[in-house]
Amino acid sequence: MAPSIERAMLIFKASVLLFLTGCSSSRGADGGEGGDRITALPGQPKVPFQQFSGYVTVNPAAGRALFYWLTEAYGNAISKPLVVWLNGGPGCSSVAYGASEEIGPFRINKTATGLYLNKFSWNTAANLLFLETPAGVGFSYSNHSSDLLDTGDRRTAEDSLEFLVRWLDRFPRYKGREMYLTGESYAGHYVPQLARQIMAYNLKSKHPINLKGIMVGNAVTDNYYDNLGTVTYWWSHAMISDRTYGQLINTCDFRRQKESDECESLYSYAMDQEFGNIDQYNIYAPPCNSSDGAGSIASTRQGMRLPHRPRKVNFRRISGYDPCTERYAETYYNRPDVQTALHANTTRIPYKWTACSEVLNRNWNDTEVSILPIYRELIAKGLRVWVFSGDVDSVVPVTATRYALAQLKLVTKIAWYPWYVKKQVGGWTEVYEGLTFATVRGAGHEVPLFKPRAALQLFRSFLRGDPLPKS
Ligand SMILES: *[C@@H]1O[C@H](CO)[C@@H](O)[C@H](O)[C@H]1NC(C)=O
Ligand SMILES: *[C@@H]1O[C@H](CO)[C@@H](O)[C@H](O)[C@H]1NC(C)=O
Ligand SMILES: *[C@@H]1O[C@H](CO)[C@@H](O)[C@H](O)[C@H]1NC(C)=O
Ligand SMILES: *[C@@H]1O[C@H](CO)[C@@H](O)[C@H](O)[C@H]1NC(C)=O
Ligand SMILES: *[C@@H]1O[C@H](CO)[C@@H](O)[C@H](O)[C@H]1NC(C)=O
C-alpha cells in the first residue's frame, strides 16, 4: 500500500469518529442516507472512508430510478468537493468502468471473489459519485420498458439533473458543496449537457447547485471534427494507407449521422484489411489471445464505447494492464450478495447486469451534432473547463479533440508545454482563457486505467485550478 494512503487513512480514522458522533442524530431512518450506507462489500478490504449506494427515483410516472455509488474521500471528506463521474457508450456503466477499473478505490480480483485497493484512486482527493445513467444502464432501470428504446441525450440530461437534485435532498451535508462533473468518451456529451442543465436549474432555484467545473477525457465533441480527426489519426499513425485516407476524405460526409454505403465500406476496408490485430483503444498495446474466454465481453467493449458509428471489429485483448477486468466486473456485480450489499436490483430487474447496454446503444434516440456551443456557454459563465486526451487512443483520438477545440478560437494564456509527473513527461498542455487542454502521454481511451499516476496528477491539478506541473 502506498505510504500516502496509509497516512490518509490514519488522518481519516479520527475524522470518522468525529463525523459519527457529530452527525448520527441527523441520519433519517426513512428515505435518508442511512439506508444507503454500505457496511462492506463482499471481499472488500477495510477502508477508512464511508460508502453509500442505492436508487433515486427520477421519474415516478414511468418508474425510472437511477443507481449511484458514493465513495467518500480518504480523510476529511466533509471539506472535500463532490465529483460526479460518468462513463459513455452511450449505455455503459460508471460502476463497471469508472469505479472498478479507472478512478475508484477498488479493483476486482481475478476470481471476482474479492477487491483490492487502487492506490491512485481519485477519492484520495475528493468524494466520488458514480452514477449509472440513463435508466437501462447497469442497475438503473425503468418500469416502462419502452424507455430503453427512445432514450437519448435529452432524457439523459434531464434525468441526471433530477437525480442530483433529489440526491442532494437525501444527503443534505453535500448541499452547497463544491461540485465537479467528470467523465470520458460519450460522456463528452453527458457532462457538458448536464452542466448546462444545472446552470438552467440554478437560475430558477432557491438552492442552486454549486457547480464549479467540468473535466472530460477522450470526449466525443463534434461529429465533423471528431470524424475528420479520427481518420487523420489513423493516417498519421500509419494505421491506414495514403490511398484509403484519401478515399475516406473524398467520399465520406463527416457531418452526417449515418454515412453512405460507399463510405461505410471504406471504413470496413480500413479496419478489416489495414488495421490488423490491434486494440483501437490503445494502439500500441500488444494484443493478447482471443482464446482467453473473454470473448463476449471483449466484443461488447469494442462495439459499445464508440462514439457514433458502430464499427465492426474482431475483438482484441491486450496486456500491460489486466484486460479482463470487465469480465470480473460482470461476475462480481451479478453476485446476489454483492447486489444486496450495494442495495442494488431491489426490484428484480428482468435481465443481467452488464458493463454496457446494447439495447440502449442500438436505439439511441437523439444526439447533439456538436457540443462546442455548450463549451462556449459554460466558459462564458466562468466554469472551470478541462479537456484531456490519452494520446494513443484511436477511437476518440487527440487529433479529433484538437480539431474540435480549435474551433473555439480561444486565447492562449500559457503556451504549450510538457507537464511532468514523477520527473517524466506526463503529457503536454496548453492553458487557454476559459479552458485547459492536456494530453496524457501513452494513455489509451480510458486514461486512468492506462496511466493511473498521471491521471491522478491531472485530477489534483484540475481540482486546485492550477496549471499542470512544469517539472
Ligand atoms: C418499479 O416497479 C416495482 C414493482 O412494482 C416497484 O417496487 C418500484 O418501486 C418501481 N420503481 C419506481 C422507480 O417507481
Ligand atoms: C480474491 O479475493 C479473495 C477475497 O479477499 C481472496 O480470497 C482470493 O484469494 C483473491 N483471489 C485472487 C486471485 O487474488
Ligand atoms: C496464448 O495462447 C496460447 C495457447 O493457448 C498460450 O500458450 C499462450 O501463453 C497465450 N498467450 C498469452 C499472451 O496469453
Ligand atoms: C436482478 O435480480 C434477478 C434475480 O432476482 C436476476 O435474475 C437479474 O439478473 C438481476 N438483474 C440485474 C440487472 O442485476
Ligand atoms: C427523440 O428525439 C427527438 C428529436 O431528435 C426529440 O424531439 C424527442 O423528444 C426525443 N425523444 C425523447 C424521449 O427524448
Automatic annotation (TrEMBL):
Keywords per UniProt: Carboxypeptidase, Disulfide bond, Glycoprotein, Hydrolase, Protease, Secreted, Signal
Protein location: Secreted
Presence of keyword Signal: yes
GO biological process, one term: proteolysis
Principal subcellular localisation of the protein: secreted
InterPro entries: AB_hydrolase_fold, Peptidase_S10, Ser_caboxypep_his_AS, Ser_caboxypep_ser_AS
Signal peptide: 1-31
GO MF, one annotated term: serine-type carboxypeptidase activity
EC number: 3.4.16.-
GO cellular component assignments: extracellular region; vacuole
UniProt record similarity statement: Belongs to the peptidase S10 family.
PANTHER family: SERINE CARBOXYPEPTIDASE-LIKE 25 (PTHR11802:SF87), SERINE PROTEASE FAMILY S10 SERINE CARBOXYPEPTIDASE (PTHR11802)
Protein known as: Carboxypeptidase
Upper lineage: Eukaryota, Viridiplantae, Streptophyta, Embryophyta, Tracheophyta
